[in-house]
Amino acid sequence: MLAMNELQSNIILAGELPHAEVLNTMQRSKIFLHPSSYEGFGIVCIEALGTGCHVISFCKPMKQDIEQWHICDTPKKMMEQTLNILQNPTASYKSIIPFDLKNSVEKMIQLLGK
Q1: Domain 19-113's class?
Q2: What three-state secondary structure class fits 33?
Q3: The three-state (H, E, C) secondary structure of 36-66, written as one string
């Protein structure tokens, strides 16, 4: 499939990698494609955002939108979104940290304090 679409120089199917190597690979990537139809809020998506990737998935993890996280409802729309990002010369690939530890702790204290 990769050779048929001339993608072998763009896509590597690496198999299982140590966590540090996964993060290093994400830092060199533009898109993290998360095609799970049931897992919405995997920590791997948050890690990908933190390394500057755009995340494309089927499941919306939160009620609010998260910058650089794109939700698609079909594989075709996922492919179109991927192409839109890659072909956009002004696309931003900045580190996004939607939830930091301090903010999370404050929200837990508020929740438990009520």
Answers
A1: alpha beta
A2: strand
A3: CCCCCCCHHHHHHHHCCCEEEECCCCCCCCC
Structure tokens that stand for 101 in this block: 């530890």
Give CA–CA dist 45/32, Å, rounded: 7
pTM for this entry:
0.79
Domain residue spans of the chain:
19-113
Contact criterion met (CB below 8 Å) for 72 and 58: yes
Is residue 5 pLDDT above 60, yes or no?
A: yes
| CA 75 – CA 72 distance, rounded (Å) | 8
Q: Is 60 in contact with 66 (CB distance < 8 Å)?
A: no
